[in-house]
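Moderator note: this is an archived Q&A kept for reference. The question asked for a predicted structure of one protein chain; the sequence and the answer are reproduced below.
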Amino acid sequence: MSDPATDSARPALLFVPDISGFTQFVKDIDIAHSRHIIEELLEKLIEANDMGLEVSEVEGDAILFYRFGSPPSAEAFFQQVQKMFVAFHGHLRLYETQRICQCGACIAAQHLTLKIVAHYARITQSRIKEHVKLFGQDVIMVHRLLKNDIAHHEYALFTQALVNEWPQASTSPWAQPEESALEYDVGRINCCYVPLAPLRQRVPEPHVEDFSIPGVTVPLFSCEHEVHAPLSLVLRVLFTLLFKKKLTNRFQASGEKLKHYCEALYNSQRA
């Protein structure tokens, strides 16, 4: 039996942030590290959600967000775009500053970019067992919009259907929107877009953690040597040595306690 809540078409905002460069990033370099980096970036995008967006699907390099009800104001929309963009590049900048791994994935992560596509339309939901999916031509259309001939590497593209819901001109705080008409198999789509490159100036400098020992004002030890070995092997050897030193210290402490106990026992017997 169908659910009436998923049968009727309702107005909704479709909002899709997409990580560009993902396919080549995963194809050419270490799959384990590239997967980890993409997962962290997608999490940052979800955490930056300020408009009450719901996650319909995580689609590899993109997230299909939606929100039923009235459309966001132009101001709220551009604030959301900015927050996600800054969170995305802020994490990449922090990662580049603090990374210790020199594999291809970790080095190339800084070249990943972000684009965002948004549309406002009436959509339905289809239920497949316990799963609910967005359904309709407009859902297909918003995915088509991710493939276009816009010259900018990073941009926010929003359809005329969304612009029509804004009572005033849609002007972003950082750039003037440009109009475009795109042709797809679903028909001609009128839209606007703004470049996101100016927002890179708003990405804060990463906060570098201070791991110094409180109260110590001079270096205790310093050593530098180039090791020609895989990083995983170096770390494994280093951690093994540290663990052995910790055990040695424990054995020495236990030995001292045993020595004192024997001396005390011997002295008590002599007395």
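Archived answer notes: Helices lie at 4-7, 22-28, 31-47, 74-98, 104-108, 137-144, 160-163, 231-270.
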